[in-house]
Structures are given as structure tokens and as C-alpha cells.
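Section 5: illustrative case.
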């Protein structure tokens, strides 16, 4: 998805739990009938592991004949990580890939030195009307992978490990955890999971990675006596094992990883360890030097162009 201008997320209140380093409250923004909440990047926190961008998409209900229409736009230096709870999106890219993503599956597009893609509601879903709800994250690529050829991989729902029991349903999207390993390949130590807990269920989170976060999607969770409702990003301190108690039926995302190999610059849809590389990508998009998406005739122009 193309980054859109947003006001910075709001820092949260101070909480009692010593395991929580920061609470970020994303600002909601309507973009033509479609609500987006951006949790990363935020003032005071740019990344959690490799995750440098974290958007909640929806929930939104489209009328008959309408849908999501994100026109072709470029990326460098990152991987887009798209995961849905409801609805579907058709991905098309300059590699010639066309793939529909549905709930529980994963689209991972590694931009490397440069790729262009669009994200739209498919014709069948547009004709029937649909609800769209999900998360799109960007994971910064390690410096040694920033200029690799772009790739796209899709993992169906059945391919991602499930852990079920004691009122807990967890899908491991990336990395390792809870005795399982995801088949999703990413060139930096990282993890990403969706958890759904019944009221009263408890999920532990071990300090397997230095940088970890919880994003609350729905319901309420309790951590050491502090209760958090939907739409909050909880940045956890390293080294602490915590327990997440479901105060109600709750859905949340767990993600993080090891610290990146240096800071990253981010501008529009471009991420790089080198500011001059972003300047090059800007010039390339303005001059039409990126590859095009087969079948697409529109594009998103460079901001301020």
C-alpha cells in the first residue's frame, strides 16, 4: 500500500506495568470511505525489529460496485507484509504477479532495488460488496539485501502454523514461537503472529527477541493490571516475560525481532539505509524509470510533483 500523509500517532499515558516501554495510539484517518490507523513510524519510535511501518486497514464496508483502489506505486528497500482478517485484495506487480489475498493468508513482496504494485478490490468482491479489515506492515530489509532483485511470495492460510487450545488461537505468520516455525522466509530475525483469545484466556510472551510489540485489534487485554482496548501499540521492554490476559474476547498482533543493522531513512514508499538512495528512487519514479504493472494504466504521482 502507498504511504499517505498522516499526523503522528499520539503517545499514550504512563502505565504501571514495568514491562511496557511505550504506548502509541494511532490516529485514524478516512481516505475516501476507508479508515486507516498508522501505528508506526511514530514520534520516538521508528522501528520494532525490522518493522518500520504498521497500518490497520479498516474495518470498512464497501457499497456494491465500490472497493479499494490503490493505484500502482513504487517501493525500495522494504518488504510489504499484508495480512487480512476480513475481505480480499488483488495484488498486481511489475514482476507480472497477480494474486488475491484472503483472510489468514500472507502476501510478502520484497521490493529490494525496486518494484511497483497496485492493490485493488477484485471484480467479484466489488460486485457483491465486501467488508475489508486487516494489517499491512513494512519490514525494512537488511543492508545486504536492499539492492537485491524484487520477489513476491504468497502463503495460503493452511501453510501458516496454528496453535489452538485453552481458549487461545494463534497463527504464526513469520519467525519462530510457541514451538512452531513459520515457512515464511525473511532475511533478518523477526516474528509476527495473530492471536485470538477467549475471555479469561492467558497467553505468555517470552523475550525471545530484543524488540517486541503488541498491537490490539479488538477487545481488551490486561497486562499486569493495566487494561488496553483496541487500536493501541504496546512497545515492550527487552528481557521481560509477560502474560497477556484476555479481559474480553480479544484479537491482537505480536511482532518484533532483533534490532536492525543501523537506522533507516523513510520517505513516501521508500526505505533505505542511505538517504541518497531515496533521492535516486524519487528521481527514477518522476522520470518513469521504474518497471510498469502489466494491465495497469494509472499510477500514483510523486508527492509534491
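Designed sequence:
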Amino acid at each position: 500500500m502507498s504511504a499517505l500523509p498522516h499526523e503522528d500517532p499520539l503517545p499514550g499515558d504512563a502505565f504501571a506495568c514495568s514491562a511496557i516501554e511505550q504506548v502509541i495510539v494511532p490516529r485514524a484517518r478516512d481516505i475516501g470511505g476507508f479508515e486507516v490507523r498508522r501505528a508506526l513510524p511514530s514520534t520516538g519510535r521508528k522501528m520494532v525489529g525490522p518493522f518500520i511501518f504498521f497500518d490497520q486497514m479498516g474495518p470498512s464496508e464497501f457499497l456494491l460496485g465500490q472497493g479499494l483502489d490503490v493505484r500502482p506505486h513504487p517501493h525500495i528497500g522494504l518488504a510489504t507484509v499484508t495480512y487480512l482478517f476480513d475481505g480480499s485484495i488483488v495484488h498486481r506487480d511489475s514482476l507480472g504477479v497477480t494474486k488475491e489475498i484472503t483472510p489468514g493468508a500472507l502476501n510478502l513482496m520484497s521490493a529490494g532495488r525496486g518494484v511497483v504494485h497496485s492493490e485493488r478490490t477484485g471484480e467479484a468482491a466489488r460486485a457483491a460488496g465486501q467488508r475489508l479489515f486487516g494489517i499491512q506492515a513494512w519490514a525494512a530489509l537488511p543492508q545486504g539485501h536492499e539492492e537485491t532483485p524484487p520477489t513476491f511470495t504468497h502463503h495460503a492460510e493452511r501453510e501458516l502454523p496454528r496453535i489452538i487450545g485453552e481458549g487461545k488461537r494463534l497463527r504464526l505468520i513469520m519467525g519462530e514461537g510457541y514451538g512452531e516455525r513459520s515457512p515464511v522466509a525473511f532475511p533478518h530475525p523477526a516474528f509476527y503472529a495473530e492471536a485470538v483469545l477467549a475471555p479469561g484466556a492467558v497467553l505468555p510472551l517470552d523475550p525471545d527477541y530484543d524488540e517486541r510489540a503488541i498491537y490490539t485489534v479488538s477487545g481488551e487485554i490486561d497486562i499486569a493490571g493495566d487494561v488496553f482496548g483496541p487500536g493501541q501499540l504496546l512497545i515492550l521492554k527487552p528481557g521481560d516475560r509477560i502474560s497477556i490476559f484476555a479481559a474480553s474476547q480479544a484479537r491482537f498482533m505480536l511482532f518484533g525481532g532483533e534490532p536492525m543493522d543501523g537506522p533507516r531513512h523513510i520517505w513516501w514508499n521508500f526505505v533505505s539505509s542511505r538517504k541518497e538512495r531515496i533521492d535516486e528512487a524519487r528521481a527514477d519514479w518522476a522520470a518513469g524509470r521504474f518497471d510498469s504493472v502489466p494491465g495497469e494504466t494509472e499510477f500514483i504521482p510523486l508527492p509534491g510533483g
